[in-house]
Amino acid sequence: MAWNYFIYFAVISIILWLSASVLILNKNKIKLAEILFISGIIVFAGFIAFLWRDLSRPIFKTMGETRLWYSLFLTIIGYITYKKWKYKWLVSYTGVVASVFAIINILKPDIHTQNLMPALQSVWFIPHVSVYIISYSMFGAATIASFIILYHLSKNYENKIVELVDNLVYSGFGFLLLGMLMGAIWAKEAWGNYWSWDPKETWAFLTATAYLVFIHLRIKYKDKAFIYWILIISFILLCITWLGVSYLPSAQSSIHVY
Amino acid sequence: MENSRKRIWESPWGFTEYNLIVWSIVLVGFVLNYNIGNFDFFLLARPYNFFFGGGIVLFIILLSLFRKKTILFKFFSSLELSVGLISTLTILCIIMGLTPQILTSEGIDPGIKENFFTRLGLRQMTTSWSFVLIYFLTLISLGSIIIKRLFSKNKKKILFTLNHLGLWMVLFFSALGYSDLQRYIMYVNKSEIEWRVYDSNQEAIELPIAIKLNDFIIEDYIPKLAIIDRKTGEIEKTTKVSYLQLDTNTRNYSFNGYKITLNNYIHSSIPNGDTSFRFTPMLGSTPSANISLKDRKTNKVISGWISSGNYALMPRALNIDTNLALVMTKPEPKAYISDIEVFTQDEKYKKARIEVNKPLKIGSWWVYQYGYDNEMGKLSNYSSFELVHDPWLYFVYFGIFLLGVGGVLLVILGKKSI
Description:
The complex is a heterodimer of chains A (258) and B (418).
Chain A: H1 6-23, H2 30-55, H3 63-85, H4 88-107, H5 125-151, H6 159-191, H7 199-220, H8 224-244
Chain B: H1 2-5, H2 15-36, H3 48-65, H4 71-76, H5 79-98, E1 103-104, E2 107-108, H6 116-119, H7 129-151, H8 158-177, E3 182-189, E4 193-198, E5 204-220, E6 224-229, E7 243-245, E8 252-255, E9 258-272, E10 276-279, E11 286-295, E12 301-307, E13 318-319, E14 324-328, E15 333-344, E16 349-354, E17 360-362, E18 365-372, E19 382-389, H9 393-413
Antiparallel strand pairs in B: 1-2, 3-19, 4-5, 5-15, 6-7, 6-14, 8-9, 9-10, 9-11, 11-12, 13-14, 15-16, 17-18, 18-19
């Protein structure tokens, strides 16, 4: 029954999140934006608590339910990381993505429980995919920033953008790591193997190690240009992992090609 | 550049020297591979994995005990070696990711001819000497680094240890546990009890675990509709949307310029004469629907029954005109469910419904839904299970747990984590 009231809670949260996403970009409205954003989180969390009480079971059973958690966690993480680093785009980004997931739940509460092949019907599906997508978007931003650094390398470039890249890569790597670990646990549940060097796994692994090269090299290596080129190459490898693996001859029997 | 002014191999070594050392080891691996073939992980079967693992741990402990007296500790715990190892591992994995690997989960592909590249082990990368040597060198290097940080005055130890120790545990226990992993397939007929399983060489073995299959059920989704070319049977290319997903809560749909009304849907049905279908809950039934289709341009309405059909029943289409027909696709599987009872020799007993993503744990064994008779589909008389025994799993999981906490902290702290 509680699902019938979802639309009211969700629409309020979505309006709060989206207006916060826009207002945060205005220097004079930051406080207001933060209040709106947190209110959105509270309203949404309130619905989850209500639903939990109503169903009297933990709500991790259907895809629609896991999407609820995703919207909630994403906004909470977005707010915490924003408070830590002051990157306002994090609020806008997580607000928009969480709203999209809430809208999917309004339109079709269980769209994914229909026609989802048995192997994909898992609580790990949404978190596994979404943390990867978050990490990809952070790495994408880091790549753009790397080009800016490389362009200004001969001149005096701002230390702030170097800081930004480091933060994006560290945090993006955290998400990447979580995505990989969740994938491993899911694989164990589905196939009895946490790691089987499936082509997509191999590429995910080497993408992670490529970023590890950057993370370790930047501590000591003197040639700054080389370091940021590593970051750009890492992103190319990431794109192959994400979009290109299914076209490789090595991946004809991959279990990840869908 | 400070490095370029200094002559190579002159102390202190930089990234170049360490990279050269790591690549020499890769070369040694290639030579070994060429001459004696790939590394056989089953050499590390119990009890040898205990000796080998113990040896690695002992070596790391000895290194750290004499860390002030020997340059070996400095060598293994240096950042330059770490970078060399990680980048080399990345390059080996790129080669692995680009070449089709012949060691698949089903064993070595027999159709592969041996040539220079296969002899170097490049097509079975994870068991090639180069990969294995780099892997174990990484274990020693990681171990030394963890100890170095524990003794250092650097206060940021917690996150560092979580990530590095977590990774070390995952790499260490998954490699040493590989040869102790048992994995068998069991085929059980309906209402029978089975305890014989097959290994990867198709040899039968008896296990101290028995499974009784009470029932095997395949649940389907509601099928989709599609418009096909009546001559070719292919999906009509001019249609904008290929498939229309039906659902029982919606009556009217819009599909490629037609208004489609779902008058009746029967998930389990058999033909009732030539004109209609009736509900019949038996294994050989097929989904069917009574559909009205209205062309929005001409307002012409056609009505009739359509059905997916199966191995025994002909599919039924609704002809739109001389060229096009509306058909119902074969239903996609939603779940494969085995209703089983499991017994072990030490008198454990469990009754469960297992399906993909929902395995059963009994004693130290995991039971996974594996397969069924594909040709018979719902009528399959048997269900097959994969039985997995992985005694090192919880050590690996502990490493994954440490890494996971480390990952969360990385996300929250960002650059402050170092």
